[in-house]
Design goal:
Elements: H1 6-10, H2 18-32, H3 41-57, H4 60-69, H5 97-105, E1 115-116, E2 121-122, E3 127-133, H6 135-140, E4 142-153, E5 168-170, E6 179-184, E7 187-192, E8 201-203, E9 215-226, E10 235-238, E11 254-260, E12 267-269, E13 272-280, H7 281-286, E14 288-293, E15 299-304, E16 313-316, E17 322-323, E18 326-329, E19 332-339, H8 346-360, H9 366-375
Parallel strand pairs: 3-11, 13-19
Antiparallel strand pairs: 1-2, 4-9, 5-8, 6-7, 10-11, 12-13, 14-15, 16-19, 17-18
Amino acid sequence: MSSEDFYAVLGVSRSATQQEIKKAYHKLAMQYHPDRNSDNSEAEKKFKKINEAYDVLKDEQKKAAYDKFGHNAFQNSGGGGGFNRGAGGGGGEFHDINDIFGDFFSDFMGGKSRTTKSSGKIKGADLKYNMTITLDEAYKGVDKNINFTTEIKCNSCNGSGSEGDGSVTTCDMCHGRGVNRMQQGFFTLEQTCGKCQGMGQIIKTPCKKCFGNGRHSQVKNLLVNIPAGIEDGTKIRLIGEGEAGIRGGNSGDLYIFVTIKQHEIFKADSANLHCRLPISFTKAALGGEIEVPIIEGGKVSLKIPAGTQNGDQLKLRGKGMSKVRLATRGDMIAHVYVEVPKSLTKKQRELLELLDKELDDGKGDDVSFFNKMKNLWS
């Protein structure tokens, strides 16, 4: 066992949380992994120290013992080290670089431990797919064809990784547990078995198509149903449609993240639809009816009350978005925008001047003007 301080090896303080310790370990492990530093003996030594330190600090019981007794907590009374290193011997637990990346992302979407030690099966990773749809598709619902490259179950060995029956045996080093255990005082310590690499089983004749993994890469096609009324940012989980597991392990899940494109007229807010409604100032003053478009297509008549003001909201009940698995719909809300003409004909100007005179008749002095200004803030 290395005599260096385990916290110093990982570059963390003694008050570091488990999350901070794990983050520091993954960063250093990926940096010094032998697969990334071929023919670099110093990197390999550093990597073994990193694994040795993390093996202790990631376990609360081991960490507590180390904090109290230091390296002495893991020494036998005879002074010799007691770790069973497996077939490889030597220093700390030696990880495959894929395991490092896999462990780092194993918590995605609430994922748990990926390996079933007794069977050698490893659960496949969860996958994420970004999908963009239109607001009209979100209103009606739609079936979307998607394709992506992923790991699928090998059809040659049916996912077992073995070329034929009877070629899979239980590891005689760890007896199928995938780990080697030893007793150190009050603590039981575990390390990944070096002979079976933690799988618990050994394949004598690996499948020629998947090389013993039980899966291989291929483009996967799926038809995904997007229900009517789905909202922007919704996540759809398709169970078992993620990566196939290793050696017959369960498949991960596929998560569809839905984004809705901006519509040229409507803006969705939950089940309600909002739009801007430009009307003339005469229509706002006199009132009337106007034809407005709706999300399902076509137009409906909307009543404009006399004296409608700029910014008023007019509601069409039940003309908004669909609601997932419900028969009811949201509302459509029109935000009034009163248009003022930028140019007038001679006749229009004369009529407006006459109207202006009529409206201000007897109320056009400075006192009434300032009174109206004050009323705007009340």
